[in-house]
Amino acid sequence: QVQLVESGGGLVQAGGSLRLFCAASGRTFITYPMAMGWFRQVPGKEREFVAAISRSGGGMDYADSVKGRFTISRDNAKNTVYLQMNSLKPEDTAVYYCASSPTTGLARVYDYWGQGTQVTVSS
Q: Could you tell me which of 40, 1, 19 has the C-alpha nearest to residue 9?
């Protein structure tokens, strides 16, 4: 019922910036958009929470490791969620995943996931 497609990943030098996009589709999401989140994962490690945004876009939550550097936002009219990543570090290298939540807030409960987009930060 919900399809999520991430884009915007790539290779960037340390200190640079990238903007990730998550395009959502499906009748359920378009009619009743829910809270959204970004996660990242490195091979051999657990998937890590990065950021979340409420349905309205007024509530946001970030992992301590990205606070002050990453900004999550959304445009419900365009069915799109964004992750602006500034001051990137090599430690940010990972596959980034977009996820939708059955809730409207920041409960960190997610039921649909995108395929991921690779972000690589070089020194």
A: 19
Question: Given the structure tokens 């657990």, which residue do they identify?
Answer: 46
pLDDT at res. 43: 93
Q: Coil, strand, or helix at residue 58?
A: coil
Q: Do residues 40 and 50 lie in contact, with contact meaning Cβ atoms separated by under 8 Å?
A: yes
Cβ-contact 87, 67 below 8 angstroms = no
> Using alpha carbons only, what angle is made at residue 45 by residues 104 and 35, rounded to the nearest 5 degrees?
5
pLDDT at 107 (0 to 100): 83
Statement: residue 33 has pLDDT above 90:
no
Amino acid at 101: S
